Amino acid sequence: MEEDLPEIEQLKRLEDPEQAFDELPPKWIGVVDVIKKRRAVSAPGPNEVPYKIIREEKDSKGELAIVWLDLANAYGTLPHKLVELLLEIYHVPDGIRELIKEYFNHLQLRFTVGDYTTSWQRLKVERVTGCMISAILFSAVMNMTCEVSREEEQRAMDEVRSTVTTMKVIHG
């Protein structure tokens, strides 16, 4: 069992959202629309899409964040309590947070080779390589960590400036 996280005062507590999260099941027409759009995006081929995005950002002098993950090790390194805190900070509704928690805690897998299918196996690492929700949560936790680091760096720089200013006043 994981131990509780210490209170992290640097974490930004976001304001409550203006609109409630829509937890209703998707409508069929919406599902069909998403599938059509995804197929259209993937049509050029697996390698063309990233290069197109990179080219567009370069041409527009925009910024592009790329996350390279060691898929064999990345997901098991995130403490569950940290993921739970992240979902709370981002106002993910309780029902969806519980669904994500259950997904990770009770994940099972089986596979078929030829005519043989294995029985269901509980996963020990609790994350599946290629699992979209794991990649999203990993990126979100890293983003939250970077924000805290930036704020700490800014606080330290402000302290240094204040000390230098005080020294100038004292020593002329």
SSE layout and pairing:
Elements: H1 28-42, H2 48-59, H3 80-89, H4 94-105, E1 108-109, E2 112-113, E3 116-117, E4 121-122, H5 132-171
Antiparallel strand pairs: 1-4, 2-3
Protein name: Reverse transcriptase domain-containing protein
Strand order of the largest sheet: 1-4
Radius of gyration using CA atoms only = 22 Å
- Beta-strand content estimate: under 5%
What is the structural class?
Answer: mainly alpha
Please describe the biggest sheet, giving its number of strands, its sense, and whether it closes into a barrel. 2 strands, antiparallel
Instruction: Note the gap between the termini.
Output: 58 Å
Total beta-strand segments: 4
Shape: extended
Mean pLDDT: 74
Number of discrete helical segments: 5
| Uncertain residue segments | none
* Helical proportion, percent range: 40-55%
What order do the helices and strands follow?
Answer: HHHHEEEEH
Protein name: Reverse transcriptase domain-containing protein
TL;DR?
The chain has 172 residues and is mainly alpha-helical.
